[in-house]
Amino acid sequence: MIKRFIIAIILIVLVCGGLVGFNLFKEQKIAEYFANRPRPTVTVSTVTAEAQSWKPGIEAIGTVGARQGVDVASRAAGIVTGILFAANDQIEKGQLLVQLDDEEEQATLIAAKANEARDSQALKRATTLVDKGVSSTSALDDAKAALDASRSVMERVKAQINLKKIRAPFSGTIGIPKIDVGEYLPAGTVIATLQDLKVMKVDFTVAEQRLSEVHIGQPLHLGLAEDAMGYEGKITGIDPKIDPQSRLVSIQAEVGNSDGALRPGQFAFVRIDLPQENNIIALPQTAVVQSLYGTYVYMVAEDDKAPAAADGKKKLVARQVFVKVGRRFGGKIEITDGVKPGDVIVSAGQNKLTVGSPVTIDNTVNPADTAEKPGA
């Protein structure tokens, strides 16, 4: 009985050992197969690193506004008798926009002028009588006071008539009328908006760390899209106080608007120009890979270990190079360490690469070509 049990155990051990040995042998052969199997060649696009001139800048988001812009309102109450403008008219400073009913004031002015003329004649007679010694100086003083009072009334009526005429406070583009002829306007009613669109202002903020790089008169570029910064301007104001909550400082600039495309309230991209820098190495952002282990690029180099191809050329492989990056602009990213001029860097196709992958270069379609060069 014991002998059979021992034999069974030995058979089980042999079977298990055979299975384990077979699996180990199989895995070894599979590993040898893949180790000896040639790695597939990956087609990539590349760029050659080179020293460039870069005009850096401070980028921000701003809001466009008119340099001068107001809601034109009536200063007096009255019925609208005339609207003398249409939407989007170019208005000159002092131009009459709206006429309110002033018949009562005009009638009062006629009476005031008559009183002023009467008191003026009375003063002349009083002066003549005093000169002849027929009248006292007190009568002359009364005549002067009466004339001054009449003139004061007349000027007050003229001022009331002027209040019935709503004029443009400055030159600009008038908006859509908000009133109708025959409508009664209470004092303070807005009739339209008036905006000077020839020169626009833009309000934006920058971080307090960049404040030392900003000054009055500094040039900048503005655009309604990040890749279309076609408007030029300059900084006109820097807030002396930094927001203690956001640590941002408010800045205002003026920008020319010759084509009239900029409108108050628009969202805009702003780039403050800084002095040009030379010998900067910058790569397309598509070439730089960021991971948990660091930031790196794939550099294309000759494989010294592999035999040359039939045409005598060395085979190319991808080498992983960790880099330090700096500023970004226009689809480019500055490389401060890890890449030198002349290095060939993969700009597209990295997702198919591993360290040492054989590569072939095809730059017929290269996304890096669409990236804007620094300083452009």
TrEMBL record:
Pfam families in alphabetical order: Beta-barrel_RND_2 (PF25954), BSH_RND (PF25917)
Multidrug resistance protein MdtA-like barrel-sandwich hybrid domain location: 70-189
Domain CusB-like beta-barrel: 203-272
Domain of life: Bacteria
One MF term in the entry's GO annotations: efflux transmembrane transporter activity
Gene Ontology cellular component terms for the protein in this record: efflux pump complex
NCBIfam families, sorted: RND_mfp
Family: Belongs to the membrane fusion protein (MFP) (TC 8.A.1) family.
The name this protein goes by in its record: Efflux RND transporter periplasmic adaptor subunit
Species in which this protein is naturally found: Roseibium aggregatum
